Input
Amino acid sequence: MGKNLFFDYCSIPIFVIILVSIYIRNSSKGRSNQYFIALNYLSLGAVIFDVMLETLSARVPLSGTQTELLTLASYGYFLLRNFTLALYMLFLYSVTRTEYRLRRLSKRIVFFAPYGLVCLCLLLNPAFGWIFRISPDRGYERGDLILVLYGVSAFYALMGVGHLIRYRGMLDKEKWLAYLGLYLMNFFAVGFQFFMPRYLVEIFGTAMAFLLITLLVFRPEEVMDSNVGLLSWRAYQADLRKILATRQPVQIVAATFTNATVVRNYLGETRFYSYISRMAAEIADLNHERGNPSEIYYESPGTLYTVLSGNSVHEKVEALLPELRDKIDRHTSDISHTGARLEASICCIRVPEDVSSYEEILHLGHNFRALIPSDQIFTKASSLIDSRDYEIYSKMEYILERAITKRAFEMYYQPIYSVQDGKFRSAEALIRLKDRDFGFISPAVFIPAAEQLGLILPIGDFVLESVFRFISQHNLPLLGLEYIELNLSVAQCMQTDLPEKIFDLEKKYRISPDQVNLEITETSFENNAGLMTSNLNVLADNGYRFALDDYGTGYSNIQRVSRLPLSIVKIDKSLVDDMNTPDGFSIVRNTVRMMKDIRKEIVVEGVEDKKTLSELADMGCDFIQGYYFSKPIPAEEFIEFLKKHNL
Ligand code: C2E
Ligand code: CA
Ligand code: CA
Output
């Protein structure tokens, strides 16, 4: 009796649709996704062979070509079909992040042995006809050992179900059920076929199970970052939990691109994301060449996490960096030619050796950058975690919250010298934090952390209030001081009610806007240039003046400098530090000249010696700030300083 191929035909479009949807959703990266894709191709192949096999075997007697085709289809079918459950098992290892269980050769041999047995039977089949026999007049007939194949399938199925039961705590319930689906479907199909042998439903069952996985598990928005086509930050978090739950050792290489936002603005999103994904491709390629199992995740705006497992836990990553750099340079030359280049900072974290808590690993990935000197590219977590700074960073949220409620902040003032007058005409207000346990913590450390943790606004409010109060409490003009400069953080500049806040303080302390100068940085424009510009204009229309801080770091937009209501440009200390080289000297001289040409006053920061001071004065700088005159000092001391030097 001929077989009914209806279900086989139905499963073909299902596999095709699954594959197409994976590619369209750009989720073909990552090992488990690749296993899943392979499973679908494998099953698609198997069902095509099955259709050939059933169609041809219904036509006896067979011609010579038909016999050959039938033989081919039979081998193809058995080879592919019997590999499905083994491959599915690899897929399960991958989704539970337990591939390490096959690390040892002996384990791998045991794992593949049953399939090896299938291959052996098929290899010997032409001689013995154990699995099937084909003859032109009788067509296709089953052999006696076909039961071996069922046995092998049962072996892999039991192994898979056992694995799912063992690791069920690690997967969401719906996902867990979806993974179990294949076994349930297979079980059901075998039963169905036992009673209704005419209907071939087995592969259809597989198709339905895969469809279920596609629908319930493959939520690309959860796993993939669609911008770069890499595994997402969420996937990193989820996988990290699995890694820790199974206690498998891994090495995480976190690479943060310190200038990612700037480069993204410069290249535009499309080119930036393709740059990132090509870089990830080079990393993947290098790992592949070295036989290192790895997964790469992306966190916006510019961090790549490479998780190395298996033997590569001991890979000496720093030794690979030059090669990687070469590869990247070679394959991203079109972008390098534009002048853009991502600057990376890399940290290797061994889990569980260095750190074994989930929060700490995430935290290290975010903060290692700030714990190493800015010119250092590579670091190991093991060399960071014992430092005082690391402890501060890990407790930063707590420290800041405590400081905010306990008002542990204080404003210091650093005098700014006017070259023309030979007196101190202004000062910069700089915040200080003295923690009960850790003592003095630098604002260069806690201000960026507060920005990240969303705690900067109360701190910014404290700064505004303290400085306004300070101005109202002292008769500064009498001491020869014209105004105080204060720093506005990026988040403060992004507040729609910033002008009102400032106007309220102005009334409360009855001070005049020209006694305040607000320092902003160009990074404030990266997020929302429109809001930033409108805040600036409202305040400027009401008499407030602005200084552009840190000029010469990052990508300065000179057009913006000329258009905005900025009265002062502050030249960054890093430019001053370079003044002892001919180029560095020339850069400062010409920056000063250009700024003077567009009628900006100039403050040079970080002047520590007399020679630099006189060079800058000769160039025509208006104001000088630096340790040469004074470090930032507490309010009372600052008043004493003015009395001594200005009166
Ligand atoms: P900044 O605004 O560029 O402040 C200038 C920094 O240079 C200050 O560091 C100052 O102490 C330091 N400095 C001044 N002259 C010299 C010198 O001659 N040599 C050296 N080596 N350093 C010098 P500080 O006070 O540690 O502040 C670091 C950064 O923290 C500031 O950089 C600013 O970005 C931020 N910050 C400080 N206070 C505040 C604040 O009240 N609000 C906000 N939003 N940020 C602040
Ligand atoms: Ca400043
Ligand atoms: Ca500065």
In short: Residues 399-645 form a domain with the TIM Barrel fold (CATH 3.20.20.450). The first strand starts at residue 132 and ends at 135. The radius of gyration is 34 Å.
